Fold this sequence. Notes:
Layout: H1 2-19, H2 25-46, H3 49-66, H4 78-93, H5 101-115, H6 119-126, H7 129-139, H8 143-172
Helix pairs in contact: 1-2, 1-8, 2-3, 3-4, 3-5, 4-5, 5-6, 5-7, 6-8, 7-8
Amino acid sequence: MKTIGQIIGIAALCVAVYSFQQKERKGIIFVQTLSTLLFTIHFILLGAYTGALFNAIGCCRCIVFYFRGQKKWASSPAWLGVFGVLILAAVVATWDGVYTLFPTAAMMLTSISLWVRKARLVRLLSLPSSPLWMVYNIINRSYAGILTEAFMMVSVVVAIVRFDILGKKEAEK
């Protein structure tokens, strides 16, 4: 099962890295929805239940935030609080030591990053989440997760340079 979990994790890695190469916020969130779904399965198969529950919450969060601005039900700022409470409840329910606080912080940061409207802020606020998840992945031997966070850090930095630095200079010409 763990081998299958790692294979599913590699698929999730490919999808996650691709997410930050989307130009628009909605594109980032749409692709991340698929990635979080795959990582939920990955962590279940590894027996890493905090990671699994966090990714299930993350999948729901992506769906709600995707519709923000389009649907009235998804546009309430109360969603940030709802997801914050769900994240805290999940860490209490699956507590496995102080290291579970790292992905908890990452989930909170990611919730804020996906709520903002500007793709540039999504990228900037997402960057610190990867090192926090990296700790959890190392402890749980999630090789796909470790690789994902390494690639995510590179992908986010590339996207920041591509869209927010070079793209900004191009727009100024």
